[in-house]
Amino acid sequence: MYDWAEYRYFKYLLAVVEKNGFRAAAEELHTTQPNLSAQAKQFHEHSGVRLYRKSKSGRIRLTATGVAFKLIAKGLLDARDEAMDALLAIERGEIRTLRFGCSSQTDPTLFHLFCSLHKELLPDCPVLSAHGDTVQLVQDIASGEIDAAIVTLPVADPSLYVDEIRRDRLVVCLRADNPLAKKVSLHPADLQANPIVLYHPQRNPDAHERLAELLADVGVTIEEFSRASHPSEMQSLVKQGFGFALIREGTLLEPELTTRPIAGVMWTVDTAFVYKKQGHPKRIPVLIRLLKSRIARPSENGKKPPRSVGRAPEQMSLLG
Which structural domain range is residue 244 located in? Predict the structure, then answer.
């Protein structure tokens, strides 16, 4: 359908819209203004879209489509470069074992899906897994112990790429026989009036601090709480009656437990891929794009796919 849409159109027109004119774009691309004008005309004739309007001075004013084009075209060209980097690395025999981590608070189906895609791409290249907390995994990536990881945010290391892929609502986990489980949603005051179980602060100090801020914003002050070092421990403590817990919506629950949203707020647990900006295995960006594509389309087995960032509403982020 769009076989006419060659990469050169996107490269040339991206320069035009970024430079706000043909002269500066031609200098950037080391070509002529007439050539750029011809490329732009062909694109407009084939596509039927208008990216900009020209003023008498020769400068351009972007349309709404042109504003969107800047981001779309850059993503398309980046994907091309990433694909070629990965193919060249494979051809040169630079592919080695991938050391891939997963934090305990992320959805494990994302980890398994990534590993499955890696096996499709490179059947003979093994993956070595590393599981732990976000803080430790980020340190391991920065030090070169592992290549990449899927973690919950925040991550503040400027030497790392943080590619967010998913947001999940934060909900209250409680015993199914608790009288409050009869409510459709819980009020923040219900959290203040009941004991609470939290993930150990030292496991992710930044996330814990942010959670305390959000709770304080709705009038909930947590001074004492039970501590869990793993999501399974959190559920176990809730089941034993130590209090409510805040967990990722969609988490597989033990039979005695249920979850309820918190009325009036939309807090999220944000999940991202993290890897080094310099020296990362070239196949990682390609695999992340494949994963995003896979989770964005309906599952072939009829099950609901994981929710991607692109399909989530704008929300107040708990961990991002």
Answer: 168-267
